[in-house]
Amino acid sequence: MTLRPGQRVAFSGHFLLPRADLEARARRAGLHVDDAVTDRTDVLVANDAGSGAAAVRTALALGTPVLDEYAFEESTSLAA
Predict the structure, then answer these.
(1) CA–CA separation, 71 and 18 (whole Å)
(2) Does the predicted model carry a pTM greater than 0.85?
(3) Contacts (Cβ under 8 Å, ≥6 apart) of 69
(4) Which of 56, 66, 71, 72 has its Cβ near the most Cβ atoms within 10 Å?
(5) Buried/exposed code over 5-39 (b: 16+ C-beta within 10 A; e: otherwise)
(6) Domain ranges of the chain
(7) Three-class DSSP category at 74
(8) Mean pLDDT over all residues of the chain?
């Protein structure tokens, strides 16, 4: 999945990198960072798509793709 500038991304869970670094990377790629998953969110970055966390459950219910940290880093490096 390649993320495009203008898309909306939310984050859930703990990551290897500090969340602030991931959010900064998203903004540099031209993405909007959401505080929570909504029907406007294009992708959720989560450390565990099977965690059962509220954000993951919401994303799955809305059909929002869920990426892990590695896939997110790859998708934003392609967009940069």
Answers:
(1) 16
(2) yes
(3) 15, 16, 17, 22, 45, 47
(4) 72
(5) eebbbbbbbebeeeeeebbebbeebebebbeebee
(6) 8-79
(7) helix
(8) 91
In terms of phi and psi (left: phi > 0; alpha: psi -120 to 50; beta: otherwise), the region of 6 is left
Q: What is the pLDDT of residue 48?
A: 81
AA letter at 26: A
Question: Does the pLDDT value for residue 22 go beyond 80?
Answer: yes
Is residue 14's pLDDT more than 80? yes
CB atoms within 10 A of CB 80: 9
Tell whether domain 8-79 is in CATH 3.40.50.970.
no
